[in-house]
């Protein structure tokens, strides 16, 4: 026995792998045979590790052992030197019985003797030229995977590393070294002379330049051919889509079922709260269906019973609806557990899946040798799968694996694993649960999805997606990827938010300083503003990282039209008007709700001899450039039609100004003052909360920026509470979440903490961009 272990190790297997291989008798005896044959051919030379690994991979995958010596010879004589060639060789052998196999045809199919010269590799230049416009526009944000993919197709048998080096080098040559802007991962802008007033235009400009969305609405961007997605039923026209002999037939049936309707789905895992990044996913999936008269499912990907909680299901649906979308139907992956199981049995029967006893640790990582159980008989796998389902194994003891190689070289992804955790919906009916790779494409297929839209991280799952549908001979939807949306100055991962809540830095998941969707709603962000933001970021394939102020400017834009004006004083200074005419008519004052459009209504506030202004709107000592009230400089009162002039400054015991006595004059009768300030009279008391960013740095998660971790980067002033602010009577009847523009102070939303005694307002955003403030 020990002998065999050392033989296996001598050709490059690890000790553990060697021992494991021994447990599989058929496999180890074939492997030994292959090694003997190889040794016979090599004479005194030894088998190197590359050949050893290829031999091992060959025996685990070869079905017809009569072909063993034939292939061994190709490996030993270095005619087959890569995994890619070996796969092609095995495929060829499988489809060509020994008796009518043409050697030349075989060698052509697996690239034997094909020498790819460095000059040929240099031809990747053609590929770069083909994409030059987009490359120039996106520079290093361009998805280099596209170039690599095309290069690999064009230079099928070339050494992958050499191709990669050449692509990298030529891109560098073409674009020049990365500039500071490239490193920032987004276009650099000059903010030094950004006039607040011009700001919105600049944003538009920026968005246009960046995503080429040209100020189009989301629906316009998503409609029709705008995205270059395939038409329903024309899946086969998509690059990379795999066509089998039955594809056209399945597509025809699919079209009969759906009548050519666009069908998409939003498939969140119900294990956390949605954040601003999800807003893009929701807008993309639901919006795409809506823009094309289609339907969109809300499908919970509830395949991990350990992580699911009722509250997440409810919260997700609520947020989808808040953003204005209605799912055609709410479904769950768990709705299909029985069907998925039946399909797994079918997959085993078709020889595309097997039961594997390797443990979690051994399945991790890439380029690990194939499982020794890969070629076990179908009957054996069926029996074991049945026992697995009946709970006859411990967690982690066995898995069902699919026989396929993923884009990134990972072999045989797991389809089913054991979990003895009751499921939120199916209780303890099942102790085996399907994985994402197994479930997702099948649920898409079952729901007759036409466009399976997902973020680019899933690009590497595309081939397994197509493979599985085809292996089961089912309708195969098309997966399309788009770039995810990130925001700076925040963290969105569930784990990190839990930390912030646990340490008391924020109150809960919906603390207004977070960028979860529930938090944004509490903070008073209108959903329309969030959707506008998504539209402006654009439906790009590129990843985008945005600064929060871009989102905030969308919020201002919506609230400018929807939040009526009111006046509030955060730090009051009492002002007594000594000469107010006693005429009753002037003791009230009419204020337009939207000064830009007076037709939208108005409200009346009292105006009496005692008013309050902001402490900061008075200075005892004049300073150059100060336009508001001083002992020598009058100031206008907004909406009141009066100009006031200081007569006497009254101070408290500590020398602090506590009251002003002023006289007033009608603004028609005096020189126009340099400024108008807001004020309140006979006000309501209220509490006001102001926010600044939660984090001091742009990328709190980046160790280069914040070495001690995101928890060390909290802005100590992220929340300011003002207990005794004053607000005018017009807000007295407001309901929770009603929003107002407090003149010159910001947009505010009435908080649920309000009582009949005391109103509580939280600031949604300031009126203008103010770095740091929110
Ligand atoms: C999907 O299409 C099949 C027929 O191809 C049909 O039986 C099934 O009901 C459809 N499912 C949904 C959710 O529309
Ligand atoms: C976006 O965020 C994800 C998760 O935090 C991160 O992995 C990714 O690198 C970020 N992308 C960019 C462009 O910053
Ligand atoms: C208002 O501020 C408090 C304190 O930060 C917070 O707990 C609450 O959620 C906020 N309300 C809204 C509507 O943002
Ligand atoms: C607010 O809206 C009015 C018209 O509705 C417009 O004239 C004004 O410029 C807007 N203000 C801002 C800051 O966008």
Written overview of the protein:
The longest helix has 18 residues, at 25-42. Among the domains are: 2-109, Helicase, Ruva Protein, domain 3, CATH 1.10.8.1290; 118-181, Arc Repressor Mutant, subunit A, CATH 1.10.10.2420; 494-565 and 687-765, Beta Barrel (Ribosomal Protein L25, Chain P); 574-679, Ribosomal Protein L25, Chain P (Beta Barrel), CATH 2.40.240.10. With 774 residues, the chain is α/β, with parallel strands linked by helices. It is elongated, with a radius of gyration of 34 Å. It has a 7-stranded mixed beta sheet, with helices on one face. Strands 21-18-19-20-14-17-22 form a 7-stranded mixed beta sheet, with no helix packed on it. Helices cover 36% and strands 17% of the residues. Bound molecules: 2-acetamido-2-deoxy-beta-D-glucopyranose (NAG) (4 copies). One 2-acetamido-2-deoxy-beta-D-glucopyranose (NAG) is lined by residues 253-254, 257, 447-448. Residues 563-664 form the Glutamyl/glutaminyl-tRNA synthetase class Ib anti-codon binding domain. It is found in: Cytoplasm, Cytosol. Residues 3-160, 163-252 form the Glutaminyl-tRNA synthetase class Ib non-specific RNA-binding domain. Residues 261-560 form the Glutamyl/glutaminyl-tRNA synthetase class Ib catalytic domain.
Low-confidence stretches: 185-213
Enter the CATH topology name of the domain at 494-565 and 687-765. Ribosomal Protein L25, Chain P
Name the average pLDDT.
86
Structural class: alpha/beta
Q: How many helices does DSSP assign?
A: 27
Mass-distribution shape: elongated
Main β-sheet description? 7 strands, mixed
Bound ions, cofactors and other small molecules, one mention each: 2-acetamido-2-deoxy-beta-D-glucopyranose
Question: Could you tell me the strand content as a percent range?
Answer: 15-25%
Determine and state the CATH class of the domain at 494-565 and 687-765: Mainly Beta
Q: Strand order, biggest sheet? A: 12-25-26-27-23-24-13
């Amino acid at each position: 026995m020990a002998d065999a272990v050392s033989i296996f190790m001598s050709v490059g297997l690890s000790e553990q792998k060697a021992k494991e291989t021994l447990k599989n008798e058929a496999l180890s005896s074939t492997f030994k045979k292959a090694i003997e044959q190889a040794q016979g051919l090599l004479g005194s030379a030894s088998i190197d590790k590359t050949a050893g690994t290829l031999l091992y991979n060959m025996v685990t995958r070869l079905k017809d052992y009569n072909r063993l010596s034939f292939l061994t010879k190709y490996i030993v004589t270095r005619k087959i030197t890569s995994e890619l060639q070996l796969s092609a060789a095995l495929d060829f052998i499988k489809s060509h019985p020994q008796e009518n196999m043409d050697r030349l045809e075989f060698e052509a199919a697996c690239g034997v003797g094909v020498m790819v010269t460095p000059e040929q590799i240099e031809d990747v230049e053609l590929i770069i030229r083909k994409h030059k416009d987009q490359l120039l526009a996106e520079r290093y944000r361009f998805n280099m995977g596209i170039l690599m993919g095309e290069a690999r197709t064009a230079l099928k048998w070339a050494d992958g590393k050499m191709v990669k080096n050449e692509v990298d080098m030529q891109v560098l040559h073409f674009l020049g070294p990365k500039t500071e802007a490239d490193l920032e991962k987004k276009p650099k802008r000059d903010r030094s002379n950004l006039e607040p007033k011009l700001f919105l235009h600049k944003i538009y400009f920026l968005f246009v330049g960046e995503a080429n969305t040209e100020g189009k609405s989301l629906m316009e961007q998503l409609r029709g051919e705008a995205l270059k997605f395939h038409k329903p039923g024309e899946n086969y026209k998509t690059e990379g889509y795999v066509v089998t002999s039955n594809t056209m037939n399945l597509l025809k049936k699919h079209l009969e079922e759906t009548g050519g309707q666009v069908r998409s789905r939003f498939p969140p895992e119900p294990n956390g709260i949605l954040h601003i990044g999800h807003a893009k996913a929701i807008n993309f999936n639901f919006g795409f269906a809506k823009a094309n008269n289609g339907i969109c499912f809300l499908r919970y990907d509830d395949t991990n019973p350990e992580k699911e909680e009722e509250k997440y299901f409810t919260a997700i649906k609520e947020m989808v609806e808040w953003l204005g979308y209605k799912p055609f139907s709410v479904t769950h992956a768990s709705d299909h557990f029985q069907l998925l199981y039946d399909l797994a049995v079918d997959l085993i029967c078709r020889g595309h899946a097997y039961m594997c006893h390797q443990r979690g640790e051994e399945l991790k990582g890439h380029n690990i040798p194939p499982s020794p159980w890969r070629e076990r008989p179908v009957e054996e796998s069926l029996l074991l799968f049945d026992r697995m389902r009946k709970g006859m194994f411990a967690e982690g003891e066995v898995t069902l694996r699919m026989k396929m190689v993923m884009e990134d070289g990972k072999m045989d992804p797991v389809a089913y694993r054991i979990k003895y955790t009751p499921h939120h919906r199916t209780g303890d009916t099942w102790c085996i649960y399907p994985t994402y790779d197994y479930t997702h494409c099948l649920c898409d297929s079952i729901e007759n999805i036409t466009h399976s839209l997902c973020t680019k991280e899933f690009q590497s799952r595309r081939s397994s997606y197509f493979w599985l549908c085809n292996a089961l001979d089912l309708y195969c939807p098309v997966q399309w990827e788009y770039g995810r949306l990130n925001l700076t100055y925040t963290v969105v991962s569930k784990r990190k938010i839990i930390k912030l809540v646990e340490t008391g830095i924020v109150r809960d998941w919906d603390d207004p300083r977070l960028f979860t969707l529930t938090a944004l709603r509490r903070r008073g962000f209108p959903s329309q503003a969030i959707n506008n933001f998504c539209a402006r970021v654009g439906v790009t394939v590129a990843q985008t990282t945005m600064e929060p102020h871009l989102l905030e400017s969308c919020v201002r834009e919506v609230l400018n039209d929807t939040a009526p004006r009111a006046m509030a004083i955060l730090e009051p200074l009492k002002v007594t008007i000594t000469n107010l005419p006693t005429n009753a008519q002037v003791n009230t004052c009419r204020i337009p709700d939207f000064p830009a459009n007076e037709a939208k209504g108005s409200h009346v506030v009292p105006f009496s001899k005692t008013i309050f202004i902001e402490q900061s709107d008075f200075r005892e000592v004049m300073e150059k450039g100060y336009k508001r009230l001083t002992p020598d400089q009058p100031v206008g009162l907004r909406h009141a039609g009066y100009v006031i002039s200081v007569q006497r400054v009254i101070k408290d015991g500590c020398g602090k100004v506590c009251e002003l006595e002023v006289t007033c004059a009608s603004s028609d009768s005096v020189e126009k003052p340099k400024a108008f300030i807001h004020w309140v009279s006979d006000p309501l008391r209220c509490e006001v909360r102001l926010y600044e960013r939660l984090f001091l740095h742009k990328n709190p998660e980046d160790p280069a920026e914040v070495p001690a971790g995101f928890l060390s980067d909290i802005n100590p002033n992220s929340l300011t509470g003002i207990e005794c602010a004053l607000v005018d009577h017009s807000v007295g009847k407001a309901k929770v979440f009603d929003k107002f523009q407090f003149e010159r102070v910001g947009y505010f939303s009435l908080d649920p903490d309000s009582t009949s005694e005391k109103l509580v307002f939280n600031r949604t955003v300031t009126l203008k961009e103010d770095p740091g403030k929110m």
